[in-house]
Amino acid sequence: MPAPLALTLGDPAGIGPEIALAAWRARAAYALPAFALIGDPDHLGRVAGHLGVETAIGVVASIEEAAAVFDEALPVLPLAASVSATPGVPDPANAPAVIESIDRAVALALAGRASGVVTCPIAKSVLYEAGFAHPGHTEYLAALAAAPGEAPPLSVMMLWSEGLAVVPVTVHIALADVPAALTRERILATARIVAHDLRTRFGVARPRLALAGLNPHAGEAGAMGREEIETIAPAIAALREEGIDATGPHPADTLFHARARAGYDAVLAMYHDQALVPIKTIAFDEAVNVTLGLPFVRTSPDHGTAFDIAGRGIARPDSLIAAIRLAGRLAGAAAPGRGP
Question: What domains, with CATH codes, occur in the chain?
Fold first, then answer.
């Protein structure tokens, strides 16, 4: 039997704790693989009480105990740091608990004791106030994955759903900075990781990658920009020489309709919104954030902390459930497919 998944706490003032409780309550309906939440059992009990939902909390001493507990109670690996959070009120005092939860989940995955890591949403601004020195969640995971003295592995963000998978080549930068950041080398490195992980983790024998253009109409043969001619097309040619099935640059406005989606396994978009707008339109509640290029499986719901609705009992756990299911699938713990 595969090892349980490690589920991180996320920001305790956000919706992470309540959707984690909801996901466990939906375990049978969605045939979820066993997971253990790394958090504060007392805090989770308070969240359940505040929401008025009955959820048995099972404190475990090790993640190996989670499978035996999972059917009857939500397995919780206690943190050394305590949590005192008011829903919707972020507090930097909880940063040590948030970081500890991530650290322990990654350590368990690297040791092979957890089959993968599923992260609940964090608020980077809150962590920055507490001295967090990394640009974001994914960069921190990559740093934890690096061997002593080695640079962190290049990690790639894929947004995945049953109907569409997209990868932004440039991510959280201003639109004005995209052309300078969009290099042939960056496209090549991103595409290689996507093709590798689609083969080795998703079981796609020959991944088909469609690369979008940067400019409208993919530059209209240079009339609306030369990035397609000078950067993107040469990268595609190099990928094809390496045996990677890459096509493009395609006009982004005709790349995401149903007929087009049948022709590829993943799209490499050139900037953040070019990737995230279509997948959030097509699969807003079911899309999953998957980090490629790490030495362990990592998935996350494709949404943030949602402080504005935390504690109101209206947060939907769909994306977290999808993230748990996909992590189980990638780790070999669950069969592919949708829930009911």
Answer: 5-154+294-330 (3.40.718.10), 163-280 (3.40.718.10)
**Burial of 72 from C-beta contacts in 10 A (0-12 / 13-18 / 19+):** exposed
Angle, alpha carbons 97-100-104 (nearest 5°): 145
CB 202 within 8 A of CB 241: no
Query: Per residue in 111-145, pLDDT tens?
Result: 999 999 999 999 988 888 888 888 888 889 999 99
Query: Which among 324, 331, 337, 325 is positioned nearest to 120, based on CA atoms?
Result: 324
**Residue position matching structure tokens 């719901």:** 301
Q: Is 145 helix (H, G, I), strand (E, B) or coil?
A: helix
Q: Which amino acid is at 138?
A: T
Query: Using alpha carbons only, what angle is made at residue 17 by residues 13 and 18, rounded to the nearest 5 degrees?
Result: 105
| pTM value > 0.85 | yes
Can you tell me the distance from the alpha carbon of 38 to that of 42, in angstroms, rounded to the nearest whole number? 12
